[in-house]
From TrEMBL:
It holds the Pfam family Pmp3. One of its GO terms (cellular component) is membrane. Belongs to the UPF0057 (PMP3) family. This is YqaE/Pmp3 family membrane protein. The chain crosses the membrane at residues 29-51. The keyword Transmembrane applies. Keywords: Membrane, Transmembrane, Transmembrane helix.
Length: 52
């Protein structure tokens, strides 16, 4: 159930998905910048960080 919540958060709000799984740090900031500049790379990065 926890992975499902992280997956949904990673698709809808990628920085939230990263923060739920990895916490607030460098990975979160990279994802935040990717999401603010280009949404799709932010989603791909969140899925990569959380599930691969």
């Amino acid at each position: 159930m926890g992975n499902l919540i992280v997956l949904i958060a990673s698709v809808l709000l990628p920085p939230l998905g990263v923060a739920l799984n990895k916490g607030i740090g460098g990975t979160f900031l990279v994802n935040l910048v990717l999401t603010l500049l280009f949404f799709i790379p932010g989603v791909l990065h969140a899925i990569y960080v959380n599930f691969l």
